[in-house]
Design brief:
Strand content: 15-25%
Subcellular location: Cytoplasm
Bound molecules: uridine-diphosphate-2(N-acetylglucosaminyl) butyric acid
Structural class: alpha/beta
Pfam families: EPSP_synthase
Largest sheet: 4 strands, mixed
Pathway: Cell wall biogenesis; peptidoglycan biosynthesis
Function: Cell wall formation. Adds enolpyruvyl to UDP-N-acetylglucosamine.
CATH class of the largest domain: Alpha Beta
Number of helices: 14
Organism: Ruminiclostridium cellulolyticum (strain ATCC 35319 / DSM 5812 / JCM 6584 / H10) (Clostridium cellulolyticum)
Number of domains: 2
Length: 420
């Protein structure tokens, strides 16, 4: 297993370009199953999760082709040749459950392995299934698989989500685009990734309005076509580099961002005293030290993203004074904290609240990435620590950050990837 070795912390300086958004491209790839024609997706990040999603589509009958520009991939599903998303793939990538909606819409039958729990929480799929049932699908479960089947047709309906789940909103949108009549999703998630999926679906011929608000209306169409779509920039990768600049007392210009998507992150980081300036598609973060502690609570968009919670916790561990972080989205997303403590952080956890007594500096240590964002948080801590840090199990980080070490090195970080 590969690891990262950071020999010492230094201020990061320079500019870095972020890739297309992982959490936007995964549902978009799944949505390609809705049409027989070819779709071309641009700004696809080079990530393990994307490779698994491509493997899953191949297994269902899609011709997946990399174009001359490696960030452009075409998807063409002339025919669905297999209705089962197998456990081996769903187990590796929970987002593969997102093929359920488009498969149901396209062929009327799909069988998907039930995704298990995952390190950050139990992550049930009840809201996805509630939506499919409301559209008239019959859902059965057994032997570790969920089957969804439409009797004659799917029919639009009003669906209220008990929680604005990102995945459920996406899956139901994809199932509903070819249902008869109108579907209304209430208390829908309004993350930028939902808006990007809606744009893609509309480019494919769907009629989806209201994405980005909590009420999404979908007027069913009879067929979908191929199109060319460019994926939005990854706001979490951008936010991670913002913290890399802050935690190292550096100055970094982050390019290919939509500043509006980072509003909650910018607002909270400014509260610490960081200098942040925004351009049309870039953000510059500058720290001259003397930052102040803050309180952060994760919430559905436009609240502070849970996918930035671990990274901000690393940063607050290095700001003297008392900060508080409350995680409201996932029940078990504090696993980075025991590793941060190995680096000298002083953090107490009480349920979903972490109370951080920040110190001027953490100390390098051997630590382990337990999931994607926890891993990113440990890299950030290592970039600011005194002495060397070794981060193992970095396959988790590879799921969501492409060329992470190279990008950090280009900003001056003393980081090396060591393949065991
Ligand atoms: N939930 C239910 N029932 C459901 C669906 C969700 O109770 O049917 C609960 C979950 O257990 C969780 C909460 O609702 O407590 C939020 O889950 P949500 O469905 O919104 O998350 P997701 O779609 O599974 C996506 C991202 C996550 C990100 C969350 C929240 C993708 C592929 N994944 O997951 O990204 O944390 O939204 O914003 O889009 C990451 O990138 O590191 C990551 C984990």
């Amino acid at each position: 297993m590969a690891k990262y070795v950071i020999s010492e912390g230094v201020p990061l300086r320079g500019s870095v370009r972020v890739d297309g958004a992982k959490n936007a491209v995964l549902p978009i790839i799944a949505a390609s199953l809705l049409s027989e024609s070819k779709s071309i997706i641009e700004e696809v990040p080079d990530l393990n999760d994307v490779r698994i999603m491509c493997d899953l589509l191949r297994c269902l009958g899609t011709d997946v082709q990399k174009q001359s520009d490696p960030t452009t991939i075409s998807f063409e599903t002339k025919e669905i040749t297999n209705s089962t998303a197998p456990y081996e793939l769903v187990n590796k990538l929970r987002a593969s459950f997102l093929v359920m909606g488009p498969m149901l819409a396209r062929t009327g039958y799909v069988r998907v392995a039930l995704p298990g729990g995952c390190p950050i929480g139990s992550r049930p799929v009840d809201l996805h299934l509630k939506g499919f049932s409301a559209l008239g699908a019959e859902i059965t479960q057994g032997h570790g698989y969920i089957e969804a089947r439409k009797n004659k047709k799917l029919v639009g309906n009003k669906i209220y989500l008990d929680f604005p789940s990102v995945g459920a909103t996406e899956n139901i949108m994809m199932a509903a685009v070819m249902a008869e009549g109108q579907t209304i999703i209430e208390n829908a998630a309004n993350e930028p990734e939902i808006v990007d999926l809606a744009s893609y679906l509309n480019e494919m011929g769907a009629i989806v309005v209201g994405a980005g608000t909590d009420t999404i209306r979908i007027e069913g169409v009879t067929s979908m076509k191929g199109c060319t779509h460019t994926v939005i920039p990854d706001r979490i990768e951008a936010g991670t580099f913002m913290i890399a600049a802050a935690i190292t007392n550096g100055e970094v210009r982050i390019e290919n961002v939509v500043p509006d998507h980072l509003k909650p992150v910018v607002a909270k980081l400014k509260e610490t005293g960081l200098e942040i300036s925004e351009e049309l598609s870039a953000i510059t973060v500058k720290s001259i030290g003397g930052l102040k502690p803050i309180d952060v609570k994760t919430l559905p968009y436009p609240g502070f993203p849970t996918d930035m919670q671990a990274q901000v916790t690393s940063m607050l561990s290095c700001i003297p004074g008392t900060s508080m972080v409350i995680e409201t989205i996932f029940e078990n997303r504090f696993m980075h904290i025991s590793e941060l403590k190995r680096m000298g952080a002083n953090i107490k956890i009480d349920g979903r609240t972490a109370v951080i007594e920040g110190k001027p500096c953490l100390t390098g240590a051997c630590v382990k990435a337990t999931d994607l964002r926890a891993g990113a948080a440990l890299v950030l801590a290592g970039l600011a620590a005194e002495g060397a840090t070794e981060i193992s199990e970095i396959q988790h980080i590879d799921r969501g950050y492409s060329g992470f070490a190279e990008k950090l090195k280009s900003l001056g970080a003393k980081i090396t990837r060591v393949e065991d």
